[in-house]
Amino acid sequence: MTTTAPGAAGPGAARPPAPDGAPAGAVPPGSSPWQLARRELRRRPAVRVSLCVVLLFVLMAATAPWLGALGGWSPDEFDKSAIDPYLGGQPLGSFGGISSDHWLGVEPVSGRDLFARVVHGAQVSLLIAFAATAIVVVAGTAAGIAAGYFGGRTDAVLSRLMDLTMSFPSLIFMIAMLSVAKDVNRIVLMTVVIGVFGWPGVARVVRGQALSLKHREYVDAARVGGSSSWRILTRDILPGVSGPVIAYTTLLIPGMISTEAALSYLGVGVRPPTPSWGQMIAESVAFYETDPMYFVIPSLFLFLAVLAFTLLGDALRDILDPRGGRT
């Protein structure tokens, strides 16, 4: 008869639980944010699909000139042979003129290729969204770390500035600012205006994290050891807030895409002939009964981009900042 040594687990014995009650297979303590993200990507099929869609849109925006050339048309090139002049310029053929020459059909009246305009619209929308997000994250992280770490008068001034910016009617100001600006680069102006009003949200999140981190033992040890404030902020505080910042950044991008589309839809954003998804949707409203594909195609691309970034951002928030997503 086989005996089991005291304390040893037999073949049918239950395995001891993971430390702190964590389930078996949990991420080991001390894993970096990127290790956590990679593990979650392998575990969630929806996150993998969202990431693939996001990468596809980024690739499409980066290669828009080559993709447009691959389709054989520039975004501003008219094709009068693809529309019927006797039916008010309606596209010839089914589904908005989709054919081997025009992969997503053509615009009514003008005959411009929708595929070329959609991929160039992706370039404009994602360029504005990424650039505005970069402004928001850099400004918000700097202000939040400074307010949380230094405290006192610095915290008071920056906190009041955050409150003032968040209470300002930003949408009305954006519309007014973009309406009166004439001979300026619309993409640069939209990027700056959108970015200026978005930083307080990031700053509040980072400020709360910095307040909790500045009293940690390793920060006190660095301070006692004679490290400068700049070294402490960059070597100790900033890595500690990187997880929530990464999660918040990914959630900011779909909001920026929607804001750019909304402003262009209202006619104060990107102006023709530069293509934009919001601008295309605004122009398609007049044709949604006679040519519904003209409305459906840019709306579908906008919906997929916002949905993919939102799902990816939600997953990263759950991984990197789990307490931030609790209510």
Describe this protein with a few key phrases:
1% strand, 327 residues, two-stranded antiparallel ribbon, 12 helices, elongated, disordered N terminus, mainly alpha
Q: Can you give a write-up of this model?
A:
With 327 residues, the chain is mainly alpha-helical. It contains twelve helices and two strands; from the N terminus they run αααββααααααααα. Strands 1-2 form a two-stranded antiparallel ribbon. A hairpin with a 5-residue loop joins β1 and β2. α4 runs antiparallel to α5 and α4 runs antiparallel to α10.
Helix-strand layout with pairing:
Elements: H1 33-43, H2 45-62, H3 64-71, E1 83-84, E2 90-91, H4 114-150, H5 152-167, H6 170-180, H7 186-196, H8 199-213, H9 217-224, H10 229-265, H11 277-284, H12 292-320
Antiparallel strand pairs: 1-2
Helix pairs in contact: 1-12, 2-4, 2-12, 3-4, 4-5, 4-7, 4-8, 4-10, 5-8, 8-10, 9-10, 10-11, 10-12, 11-12
**How do the strands line up in the largest sheet?**
1-2
User: Can you give the helix content as a percent range?
Assistant: 55-70%
Mean pLDDT: 82
Based on Cα principal axes, name the global outline.
elongated
Count of individual beta strands: 2
In DSSP terms (H or I, runs of 4 or more residues), the helix count works out at 12
Uncertain stretches: 1-27
